[in-house]
Model the fold of this input.
Amino acid sequence: MTVLPTLQKQQHPLASGAAQLARLYAVRLERSFPRALDGAGLWPLQPTGIDILQVNVGKKCNQTCRHCHVDAGPDRTEMMPDDVLEACLAVLRDHPIPTLDITGGAPELHPAFRRLVTTARGLGRRVIDRCNLTITRLPNYRYLPAFLAEHQVEIVASLPYYQARQTDTQRGDGVFEASIAALQELNALGYGQPGTGLVLNLVTNPVGAFLPPAQAAAEREWRERLGRQHGVVFTHLFTITNMPVSRFLEHLDERQQTEAYLARLAQAFNPAAAAGVMCRTTLSVGWDGRLYDCDFNQQLDLPVESRVPRTIFEFEAAALAGRRVAVAPHCFGCTAGGGSSCGGALDG
Done:
């Protein structure tokens, strides 16, 4: 019988986005991020278009993960109102943005999750659900695997590691077992299986203050271990760097590792990765309708620049596509080593 994860309680609220930014700027890096971009011929950083509308429908989650950059958990009450959700769907109806990327929290907890998915799919959009896997094991959400398969929703499933100890350390007792059960059910429905068209990508971030391994090599290792030990198959593995934001920034500060970690990220700056950062193709929508260049900026209350529309209600494709991306020291996380984005490594 599957044991559902033990939820870790949040001990105290984190610092505001502005306070987190001030903390990051207090670390005097050898080179600032704009200077690094300038050296790569990428300053000012601008989008190449809007290919993905990434919508954060809220911060409520059935888990409280140790390194969560969203600071999500069961006690969070922020949830996207109906008028904001409808404005997001109106943008998809009126503009040829090919992909809707739904995130949270656990996005499936939003009461309108099914409507968001079915409407976007009805418009012919590719839909991505960023799923923590354990949500599908809860009684009220047992419908999810079949529903996602029926509508051919692409699943990006978070799993810290292919072994229980590391996963449960980051996410809570029982998470690994519940995640494996969820993956096995998704496989049975065709997810991750060749020829089905049902995409099941796994995403992993390190359990600690270091860079992830090379994505291609990690994917081979994960495929072999999960297949041999649990009979699990998947489409691709995405490796993502831990961003010095929210809970992970607090984790670094508590261990006096912030300066060293930021220096490690800056020293590993990769111009090739910088050219492909997700903010160049993605527009992020907060649960309250405010617009951001990426999900990380959203958590730091760092909105799109003031000369362009700043809410989904004011959406103007041309103006937003021509904006200058807001950057700060945390951006070194997306450009370190092989790079990091919501779609995994950016270089090689």
Observations:
- DSSP finds 14 helices and eight strands in the chain.
- The chain has one domain: 30-335.
- The chain has a mean pLDDT of 91.
